[in-house]
Design brief:
- Residues 21-439 form the Major facilitator superfamily (MFS) profile domain.
- Keywords: Membrane, Transmembrane, Transmembrane helix, Transport.
- GO terms for molecular function: transmembrane transporter activity.
- The structure is a single chain.
- The protein has 459 residues and is mainly α.
- The chain has a single domain (5-210, 229-448), classed as Growth Hormone, Chain: A, CATH 1.20.1250.
- It has helices at residues 8-41, 43-50, 54-80, 85-103, 109-123, 126-137, 140-171, 188-197, 200-210, 232-241, 243-274, 279-310, 316-334, 341-355, 358-369, 375-406, 412-448, and strands at 177-180, 184-187.
- It has a two-stranded antiparallel ribbon.
- It starts with 7 loop residues before the first helix and ends in an 11-residue tail after the last helix.
Amino acid sequence: MPLDEDLLPEARKSYRYQWYVVAICMLAYVFSFVDRQILSLMIEPIKRDLHLSDTQFSLLNGLAFSLLYSVMGLPIAILADKRSRPLIISIGVAFWSLATAASGLAKNFVHLFLARIGVGVGEAALSPAAYSMFSDMFPKSKLGRAYGIYSLGSFIGGAAAFIIGGYVINLLKSVDAVTLPLLGEVRAWQLTFLIVGLPGIVLALLVFFTVRDPRRRGLRRDADGGVQKVALRHVIGFLWRHRRTFAAHYLGFSLYALVLLGMMAWTPAFYIRAFSLTSSEAGYLLGVVVLVANGSGVLFGGWLVDRLARRGHTDAAMRAGVIGALGMTVPVVAFTQVGQLWLSLALLAVAMFFASFPMPASTAAMQVLSPNQMRAQVSAIFLLISNLIGLALGTTLVALVTDRVFGDPKMVGSSLSIVYGLASVLTVLLLWRGCRHFRRSVAAERAVGEPAAQPEGVS
């Protein structure tokens, strides 16, 4: 139905504001990935100064971050389903920014491990709250696009971490240490953490003062017309009722995350060791690959979800995941096995493009199926499983194969091929099987009432 002309300016204002919220949440996601990813580029100086093995470094890059990032996501998500979501996001941004800066003060493995746990705790506040807000702001036909643009922040952040980190490392390559007021002597890599961490405080204030919590829509109501109160046991009951769907979704997309996050964590070390690149050179090259390949991949993945949905596929998000997993399987194995740098980077770009599909796809699937009162919690449980598998297990498996099977750091490329090749095949099988279960779950939820009725958007 056409909008009345008198309402058009207000409608346009609302439309612009909706995308402003997506943009500022995307910017927060950029900051989160810069703070998360910068560690992987500085693997060699950190290992040298703190006397670490590949396995210990993988714990910093995986387990330390994912431990409380995964666990704290659920209680924070429970708050996000009941309290102000912009407030939760702003507190989270401030917390992880300070924790990143604290990484620059680390003097040993334990100090850095604790600081990385802090980064994980702060970042746990962002995605569940952002996902929940978007579902209340956009119709289903635009959800894939909104999630795709938001998810783009992870790859802009990953690229920025590589490029900015490479620039700072190159800038400080002749500087062994600097002396700062109150802090004393700090190494170049420690200064890098301070530089990238502190600006997040400004972003936290921007979220707090400019984003308002949208009205919650699609709430299920009891027989008296009141909003049903949802406890964690209700969420567990919902997941159990659709256990085949969520088993395929959670495990399939978690293995997908294992491949994507593992490549983000280990490709700098691979190119430094296999092609004798400097940290700066690796940062610049990988920054371009992540920005172009992953950025276009996540946008295309979001478009594909919306396209399949418009064509009547109720399992659109799961189908998009299957397509992406099929596309990444061969290049993710091959890029470490070729001898030419240009060919390796080309294959990596293809792998990264398809590896980006699940970011909007996995989110859209959860938000479409779940009732409003439990969206953030369903997302948080997924992030709990996804990050324990994708970050903690995925990065450490590669290190263990390198250290224990090959016993040679230069064989990290073969470890990548083995671990992520197997994970890619399992991803395809799980998501393909999950499509059928997802269709059944959507039909079942529609039979008892549309769980996530969306507001009409402005075209």
